[in-house]
Recover the amino acids of this structure.
């Protein structure tokens, strides 16, 4: 009878960050699948939520980021185990829900199918916001709070974006005067020429004026035609 113990698996995990099931069997002196699973259940481990759960690793809580995720190259692990459990955890714990794109970017794999499956099974819900679906907690009270928080963030971002926009009238005049003196100038040239101006004139402001008056094309023709 082969000499086997859970410590053999722990030693394997210590030497390799991510292993396959055949690696586990070999570490247990070529144990059968049932025997390998029996010893595996005696150690803290995780299966990857990508690659169809092919890879195993030691469950070390110090390695997880704030979302409970950990990766080895293109092999991804979650404190919650499977992809489905991970999605439910992230959505339920979120302050403002998650969009499909946000979850895809975070988890680095496609999540549309498990998201829809979770909605069908009534484990989470989704609401349409600004043309996209927001995945939120199934509990009506928590879900409503997540939805409101997201809507407030969208509104705040719109206000912030609108404030970037319009340069003040005096800044517009300074930019246009500089272009009259240096008609072939591009935005970067104008910013350099106006260095030291008070208040400072940013690249964003110059680009905004160029776009509004189509200055790039008029400059190529030999000067501005603004009246």
């Amino acid at each position: 009878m082969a000499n086997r113990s859970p410590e053999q698996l722990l030693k394997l995990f210590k030497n390799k960050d991510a292993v396959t099931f055949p690696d586990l069997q070999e570490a247990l002196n070529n144990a059968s699948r049932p025997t390998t699973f029996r010893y595996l259940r005696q150690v803290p481990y995780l299966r990857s939520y990508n690659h169809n759960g092919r890879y195993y690793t030691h469950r070390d809580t110090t390695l997880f980021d704030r979302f409970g995720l950990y990766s080895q190259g293109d092999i991804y692990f979650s404190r919650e185990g499977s992809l489905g459990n991970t999605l439910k955890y992230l959505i339920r714990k979120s302050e403002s829900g998650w969009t499909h794109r946000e979850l895809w970017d975070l988890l680095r794999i496609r999540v549309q199918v498990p998201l829809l499956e979770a909605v069908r099974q009534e484990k989470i819900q989704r609401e349409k916001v600004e043309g996209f679906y927001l995945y939120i907690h199934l509990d009506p009270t928590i879900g409503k709070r997540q939805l409101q928080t997201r809507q407030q963030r969208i509104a705040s971002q719109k206000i912030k974006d609108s404030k970037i926009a319009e340069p003040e009238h005096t800044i517009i005049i300074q930019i246009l005067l500089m272009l009259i003196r240096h008609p072939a100038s591009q935005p970067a040239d104008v910013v350099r020429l106006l260095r030291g101006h008070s208040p400072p004139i940013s690249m964003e402001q110059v680009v905004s004026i160029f776009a509004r008056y189509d200055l790039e094309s008029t400059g190529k023709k030999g000067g501005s035609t603004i009246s």
Notes: Strands lie at 45-47, 56-58, 69-72, 75-78, 98-99, 124-129, 132-137. The first helix runs from residue 6 to 15. Confidence is low (pLDDT under 50) at residues 221-227. The radius of gyration is 29 Å.
